[in-house]
Amino acid sequence: MTSFHFDIGERARHAGRFIGRVRGELLRALSERKSERGLSQEALARKLDTKRSLINRQLSGESNLTLRSLADLAWAMDLEISFELKKPAVNAGQNQPIQNQTMTTSTVRHGQIRYINGAAKPAAVHATPANSELGQPKKSA
Amino acid sequence: MTTIEELVETNAISRIQVEMHPRDQELRLLYGTPDFIDWLGRLAKGAEPERRLGEATAAEQVDDLFNTFLSGQPLVYMKQFRSIRAEKNAVWELKTPDVRIFGWFLRKDCFVAVFGNWADVIKDHDLYRGYRISIRRMRREWGVDENLCVQGVMPGDVLSL
User: Fold this and answer.
1) Domain that holds residue B147
2) Is the Cβ–Cβ distance between B85 and B70 less than 8 Å?
3) Which residues of B touch A28 (CB under 8 A)?
4) Which of B160, B77, B65, B83 lies closest to A31, judged by CA?
5) Residue A93 CA: distances (Å) to CA of A17, A85, B21, B101
6) What confidence tens digit (pLDDT) does each residue in B44-97 have?
7) What domains can be seen in chain A, in order of their start residue?
8) Is the Cα torsion angle A82, A87, A91, A94 positive or negative in sign?
9) Domains in chain B: how many in total?
10) Which of B21, B41, B60 has the CB atom closest to A12's CB atom?
């Protein structure tokens, strides 16, 4: 055997990596706060009126996090939580089709090729394409 | 002088991979011995410790750890990896809430896993010393102590951070 593919299934993978990402983000945030402000687990525990061992277990993943405890930890670190659900990128890293726009080129007049974009403002006709992302990979989320 | 390619060709170690997000690519390398691969296979089939601490299953924890490692993301020192003892040719441990994986770094960003076990079993029976000695013996028998083993014990010696 030259390689082994550790496959636990898409659903399990999705859950495990989400949980791991949340904890990783907490650990990184605390590490940054520690170097910026000297914030320790002990100080977090005092601010939240709880035991340092519980904070340690929550951060290391040995104790479950509730939404409230997550919010409390963020509050104690003076940080906001950004939460968003979104559609997955179809093919991350690839150019994506321009949506709801039809673009044609015209060589009716002499000179440089003009890009005529129906959805664009007139001022944009002679300049760069209205959609400035044309020809550039669209960043995936 | 033994090379990684020779170890792979003789089936002493095999490459370990996980499903990765399309935007990611492997920036580190992970190998395992046949016994470790067997253990990993049992884990993938649903093996669990008697009393699980983590919210994710043991397999999910390991998948996340491997994905983090392979995709080149930062690992948190002491929480996710550490050397068992600060010594030359150290044995290293990869950690999740419920799982411990022992092995060593063949090169920077290139880990070979030798033993996997439940964290509580290792702590209850104090298996750290036994695993460390077994791995050191294995390296001596393979003749890779000098040329296929990261010498340093600082986090930056074994991982690009």
Assistant:
1) 4-158
2) no
3) 74, 76
4) B77
5) 20, 20, 11, 33
6) 999 999 999 999 999 999 999 999 999 999 999 998 999 999 998 999 999 999
7) 10-76 (1.10.260), 96-141 (no CATH)
8) negative
9) 1
10) B60
